Structures are given as C-alpha cells and as structure tokens.
Amino acid sequence: MFEVTKRGDVFVRARIYDWLVTAGTLGVLPRSYARAASKVADQQSRRVLDVGTGTGVMAIALKKFAPRAEVHGIDPSERMLDLARTKGVRSGVVVHFSHGWAQDLPFPDNEFDAVTFASVLHHIPAAQHGAALSEARRVLRPGEVP
C-alpha cells in the first residue's frame, strides 16, 4: 500500500513521485540536481545537509559527486525517507536519512559546510520560509560564501 503524502494542494503517491517529477519536467529537474550537486561538491564540503530530501535524489547526487563527504538528508515523510534509503543502498552510497522539518532542524549549530534545498520551499508555507532559512543558516558553519 502507498502512503499518500500531501504536497501543496496535490496528493502524490510517494512510490511514483520520482517518475512524476521526471516526466513533469521532461527530465530537466534530475539533471539540474546533478549539476547543482557537482557545484556543491567542488567546494570541498565535508558535511552536507539536504533539507526536504524526499526520495533522496539530491542527497544521493551529492554523495556521488563528493564521495568522502558525510551527507545527510532530512524530510518529514517517513515513506519518502524509506524510498530514499532504498535508493541509497541501490546506488551504493551511504547517506544518513532522518525524519525532521526544515523549520526545526535536529542538528547543532555550525554542523554543516553546505545546506541544499532542492525543490522544497514551495512545500513549506510561505509564512514559514524565514524559519526554514534561519534554521539552514544556524546549522551552517561560518565562512566565506564562494
């Protein structure tokens, strides 16, 4: 049985989410994730967090481009995380997937070298965007932005 996850006003079956995203964007979005992941990996990040990881597409791409980095993915949907974990194993990479919300990240201050939000802000109520971005800043280590 599929878990139905509410994404804005649309209900999406978690198991077909990747297919819908790929088909709906004519394959552009997954390729964009790979390009973005390669840019983050170029920054020599040692610890990276993917907020709203969903099925783990960005987190897995980050790990592939930066195999020595410790990559974490966080999402509020356990079903999406189950799929992300399965995809990570099938991809042969180790990504740490955990449950949580962008507005209240369960990590200490200054924990990550990079934080990504790949197609997730539109799933967060607009009134909570500031909280999500503040949390991302809180868990980022201080340093120069490239």
Q: How would you describe this structure to a colleague?
A:
- By secondary structure, the chain is an alpha/beta fold.
- The protein has a single domain, classed as 3-Layer(aba) Sandwich (Rossmann fold).
- Helix content is 39%, strand content 18%.
- The protein is built from 5 helices and 6 strands.
- Helix 2 packs across helix 3.
- It starts with a strand and ends in a 7-residue tail after the last helix.
TL;DR of this structure?
The chain is α/β, with parallel strands linked by helices. It contains five helices and six strands; from the N terminus they run ββααβαβαββα.
Question: Keywords, please?
Answer:
disordered N terminus; 6 strands; Rossmann fold; 5 helices; four-stranded parallel sheet; alpha/beta; globular; two-stranded antiparallel ribbon; 146 residues
Number of strands: 6
Question: Helical amount among residues, as a percent range?
Answer: 25-40%
Low-pLDDT windows of residues:
1-11
Oligomeric state: single chain
CATH architecture grouping: 3-Layer(aba) Sandwich
**Overall 3D form:** globular
Tally of contiguous helical segments: 5
Taking all Cα atoms into account, the compactness measure Rg is: 15 Å
Helix-strand category: alpha/beta
Number of domains: 1
Query: What is the spatial order of strands in the main beta sheet?
Result: 5-4-3-6
Highest CATH level, the class: Alpha Beta
Stated plainly, the CATH topology is called: Rossmann fold
